[in-house]
Amino acid sequence: MSLIFLSTIFFSLSLGIALGIGLSLLSVVRHATKPRIQILGKVPGTHDQFENAETSPNQVEFVDG
User: Pick from 28, 23, 19, 57: which is nearest to 41 by CA?
Assistant: First the structure.
């Protein structure tokens, strides 16, 4: 944000707007490419407790379905 503000003050308004739009689009693309889906595995000995199976695959049981 400060980069956009400084470029607007020191250079020009159109450069600040273009830089703001470009950085906003880059932020949206970066956010859209990060997956938010996690594979869960059941913690052994429990009925309703699950953990992330990607971080600790040896400590969870995989359940079909």
Answer: 57
